[in-house]
């Protein structure tokens, strides 16, 4: 039975969906309330909500695409457009959403069920201008103004620089780090990352403005997020005292940015053109529930920072080829 605009009757399927939504929201409220005190299922309920969002997104993207196709006057072009929309829907199958949920639930096993709402007090952070001057930088992630790292991997050259600029996020002064990716001399990504160093030396990640380019034209801001906006939360990019088995969120903007890291070694060894770390590298496994199955291993050398990124599936390496850190 469909909804009748004239009588206001609602279809039976609509009633079922509405009831399921009410029951889910009630469970979510209860889980969140209890999660803060050590009980409840806040993490799992978050995964469940994200699954619903993902499923609806696939459907919404398809019908929006069909709507745009309808406004194509040429019949052949219109049919080709609809076929392309169908293909995109098939490629973005519900199985992808299910895999994301399973990855999020696995993460809940590692992190626990409490709501992710880390304490982020401005009084607990140092000003970026003090790092390397009156405050020691994190040895594995030195946020020293003027520091610059250049990496190469395949046809890409990646330049990362601590700009000396500051952006305030949630009352915390964050260092602005620019990350430029060039392919065969053309800029394909130009990102501003925002990091803050805690008084204990831990470096927090507070967001990014991610800009993708094609033929010199800005084509996407996908992946951009900022702590505090739309309830996004900051994460840890490097602990002051990393230990094997540590698992932590690096960022949390549900559905947009959910990177996670696990420390797998603190005695890693690697050699790249600009640095080496014989038995002294912190090695992390980086992954995200948004792209299950894709992982990267990153090697961080003391007093240098990240020197190597490896994709274990393809063997591709992004290596540090030059580095300059003032005062090092």
CATH fold-level assignment of the largest domain: YmcC-like fold
Query: Percent of residues in beta strands?
Result: 25-35%
Instruction: Output the helix-strand order.
Output: HHHHEEEEEEEEEEEEEEEEE
Tally of individual helices: 4
Indicate the low-confidence ranges by residue numbers.
Answer: 1-20, 32-39
Shape: globular
CATH architecture of the largest domain: Beta Barrel
Q: What is the highest CATH level, the class of the largest domain?
A: Mainly Beta
Average pLDDT: 89
Major sheet, described briefly? 15 strands, antiparallel
Q: How many strand segments?
A: 17
General description of the model:
The protein has four helices and 17 strands. By secondary structure, the chain is an alpha+beta fold. The radius of gyration is 23 Å and the shape is globular. The chain starts with 11 loop residues before the first helix and ends with a strand. Mean pLDDT is 89; it is low at 1-20 and 32-39.
């Amino acid at each position: 039975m469909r909804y009748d605009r004239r009588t206001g009757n609602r279809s039976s399927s609509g009633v079922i969906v509405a009831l399921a939504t009410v029951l889910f929201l009630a469970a979510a409220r209860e889980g969140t309330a209890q999660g803060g005190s050590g009980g409840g299922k806040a993490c799992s309920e978050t995964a469940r909500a994200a699954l619903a969002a993902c499923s609806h997104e696939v459907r919404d993207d398809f019908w929006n695409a069909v709507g745009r196709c309808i406004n194509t006057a040429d019949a052949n072009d219109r049919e080709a457009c609809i076929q392309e929309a169908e293909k995109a829907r098939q490629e973005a199958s519900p199985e992808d959403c299910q895999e994301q949920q399973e990855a999020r639930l696995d993460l809940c096993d590692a992190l626990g069920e409490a709501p992710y709402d880390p304490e982020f007090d401005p009084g607990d952070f140092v000003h970026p201008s003090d790092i390397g001057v009156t405050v020691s930088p994190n040895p594995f992630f030195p946020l020293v103004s003027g520091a610059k790292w250049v990496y190469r991997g395949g046809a890409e050259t990646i330049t990362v620089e601590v700009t000396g600029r500051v952006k305030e996020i949630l009352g915390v002064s964050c260092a602005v780090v620019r990350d430029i990716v060039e392919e065969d001399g053309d800029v394909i990504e130009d990102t501003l990352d925002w990091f803050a160093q805690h008084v204990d030396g831990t470096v927090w990640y507070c967001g990014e403005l991610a800009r993708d380019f094609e033929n010199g034209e800005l084509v996407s801001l996908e992946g951009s997020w900022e702590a505090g906006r739309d309830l996004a939360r900051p994460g840890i990019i490097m602990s002051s005292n990393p230990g094997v088995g540590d698992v932590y969120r690096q960022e949390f903007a549900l559905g947009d940015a959910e990177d996670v890291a696990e420390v797998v070694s603190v005695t890693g060894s690697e050699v790249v053109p600009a640095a080496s770390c014989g038995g002294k590298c912190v090695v992390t496994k980086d992954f995200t529930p948004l792209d299950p199955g894709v992982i990267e291993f990153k090697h961080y050398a003391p007093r240098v920072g990240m020197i190597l990124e490896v994709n274990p599936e393809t063997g591709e390496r992004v290596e540090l080829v030059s580095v300059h850190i003032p005062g090092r």
